[in-house]
Amino acid sequence: MSAKAQNAHPGMNLGYGEGARKAEVDVFGFWVFLMTDLVTFGLVFAIFGTMVGATAGGPGPEEVTDLRSIAIQTALLLGSSFAFSWASLSMKYDRGRGRTLIFLSFAATSALGFLVMEFIDLRHLVEIGATPQRSGYLSALWALVGLHGLHVAVGLLGVGSLTGQILLYGLTDKIKSRVTRLGLYWHFLDIVWVGIFSMVYLAGVA
Amino acid sequence: MNEDAWTPIPGSGFDWNPLTGRLHWGDLKLLEVFEDPSINSFVASAASWIAVLAALAIVILLTVKRRWGWLWSEWLVSVDHKKIGIMYILTGFVMMARGVAEGVVMRTHQATAYQGGFLSNEHWAELFSTHGTVMIFFVAMPFITGFMNYLIPLQIGARDMAFPVLNQISLGLTATGGALVMISLVVGAFETGGWTAYPPFTGADFDPGPGPDYWVWAIVLSGIGSMLSGLNFAVTIYKLRAPGMTFMRMPVFCWTALCTSILLVFALPPLTVAGLMQALDRLAGFHFFTNDLGGNMMNYANLFWMFGHPEVYILILPAYGIYSELTATFAAKKLYGYTSLVLATMSIAVVSFCVWLHHFYTMGQSPTINAAFGIATGIIAIPTGVKVYVWMATLWRGRIRFTVPMIYMAGFFMLFVIGGFSGIILANPAINWQVHNTQFIVAHFHNVLLPGLIFGIFAGVHIWFPKAFGFRLHERAGAITAFLWIAGFSLTFLPLYVVGLLGYPRRSAAFEDPAFIPYMIVTLCGAFVLLSAFIGLIVTLWLSVRHRDELAVPLGDPWDGRTLEWATPSPPPHYNFAVIPEITGRDAFATEKAEGRPYVTPTEYRDIHMPRDSVAGVFVFLCTTAIGFGLTWWIWWLAILGALVLLGWMFIYPFFDRTDEVIPAETVRLANEAWIAAISLREGVDRDDETTPRNRGFAATDMEQAT
């Protein structure tokens, strides 16, 4: 690392000190983690791709796709990501932790709405007999959608934990770096959802 | 629903209750021999008794010696990369004892296998499955992870890993996997589908028992640990290099470690995905790899080998790194062709992702696809060949000392090249069709893994043991052990090439052709030589500990080393370096010695911040072992409890601010100046006296000619 001062993460507004250097290592590490997660999702997508035709006489894409519900879910998740970016911006410009927390709570509520909608959809699938035990296609569908849903749920736990930390300690350097990392995770899940939305649902009924 | 009659998988026929799942007293292997006395059940029960008694002996020893507190505070909660590295290597040796013992039992069985051996077919299948799983995942992986842990921060001039607590968690997850495999020796049975555990044979339809579940959870949990290790190493190498340590100044071991880390990051997710899908198939009735309702086992084969082939290079690259350090150090020469070695390593890392299909040429692809993968496989031999030439050129006219590491190197040169050639033969799909699934394959991969990886590890242990513990290993015992490994390997595995070509299928419990018998007897003799070689390792360690005073090298540089780790006392202090060194060239320490300015007292000392101890590793180990064991035996409450506690901990953990431990500058100064003073009192030892008691770790360097 060069000796000259560098503002490694202007997005976090940490200045030029030791905090920025630590954040640089942590955030880079988190990018690498996201890369492994991307490989994981990519493989599940690939498996889904090979199993699109493997419906074994059971429900196919037409039966499992409710585009209206999927559209609302997409709006909720993209809205959640949008709210999170406002939280990040208010953190960057030092607009007080209250504002950051409000946007975080918007993001969390919206994501919770997404999960509820997804749950209702999956319950409907069980009702029409489209359980993962029915066919290879449905196994892959449930695994892919479920893996994404689990990621969102874990992310929600993270928002909860971070909210508590911000209330207790305020926006310290350490917590700013955590907000940044959770933000990366949040937007990453959005990108994965765009993939699910287009590959699983749109391509399924198109 | 009647609670008693309910089982999670309908029709699986297991007697299930909420408290102990499908686990019953009858699953304890310890009692098997008493219920059904036979040679077969005697071997099974004896193995589990050995495991239980060995664990008990360790517990008693720790209690009698009052070492529990020491074990806890010095080792288990330590986040020091050096201690974590040593614990990895120790794990590898413990598991290796099991793997070698299984090997001997298997060879004994095969020597009697003409028209059926002394073990039952299931027991035999369990043996080759556990042997492979243990040796790859819990011997080879901990060995290389241990070396990378120990060496990376020392060689790049850092104080610790980028994420020290995560490092400890990785070790905890590896221990979870090892623990599950060891538990399977005592409770229930392991799977019988080989270390690759191909479904549908390992699916719920054919094997509903706990065996494949043990495999899945051991592999998935330890696999996540390995992935996190890779992440940690990569970030450490990218971000924590000392000032001036540019990429092209890094020691070659660090380059191989970087490539291995990248492979770990990309290749472990396929294994996790394959394992979890297999678990969903088995536990929740999904249809990823089943025979019916749209399942496709080829997806498993592809996922597994997308991991499995890079895994081969994950294991061998750090060994290449060790050989590179070895040749340069023990020939007292600069490494010939550093740049080509780096390029070769990177090429191997990239091409290793393009060859996975050569593990199943016979499973129905078109000849075109097979040809493409055959060509890619042939190509990967080129950078490997480059490396062998680089090492030979480095040795050329060097001041070679035929000490233990060099004996392993010589064995590696002769035997590994044979293994490599058999690999090139196998790369050709047409030939591969003839010998696939025969002992020829067994000969090939033992030939690359044993002389390639394991010889490298043992050579590395001889090189860096004095760094870690402050005394050298016993030279004579080490040399005898090394020759035993070379002879044992040759006797055991080279005959397998012949019987493979004669058509002896691998993994078969019996054979029908009496022509194989003499070869099988030779390999049995070889197995006993290998067993004595393993005992030789223990004897070497025992003799070294006994003679540790005359073998002591506290000054830190017994081999006239070239890289930064030798510029520290042995063992290195917790913080590695009194001040972080400034790097001006390749082979940093060798440069300093050549310029006649090693061991300079720094002008200014500063306080050093080090991460504090943590219980995270032990905690994650306990939780994930509960999850793995619970899911294997369908003890849902245990698995859910483990998962909830783990999640709750992840939620709460960040609330506690982890402060650093500060080591005052004065303490560092005193320690460092005492070490430098001790050096100045001594005369450097010449390379001719390297293995005599005069060697206290201060080298009279001949670097002037050598750099």
From TrEMBL, chain A:
UniProtKB keywords: Cell membrane, Membrane, Transmembrane, Transmembrane helix
Membrane topology: Multi-pass membrane protein
Subcellular location: Cell membrane
GO molecular function, one term: cytochrome-c oxidase activity
Transmembrane segments: 28-50, 70-89, 101-120, 140-171, 183-203
A GO cellular component annotation in the UniProt record: plasma membrane
Classification via SUPFAM superfamilies: Cytochrome c oxidase subunit III-like
Main localization of the protein described in the UniProt heading: membrane
Protein name as it appears in the record: Cytochrome o ubiquinol oxidase subunit III
Source species: Palleronia sediminis
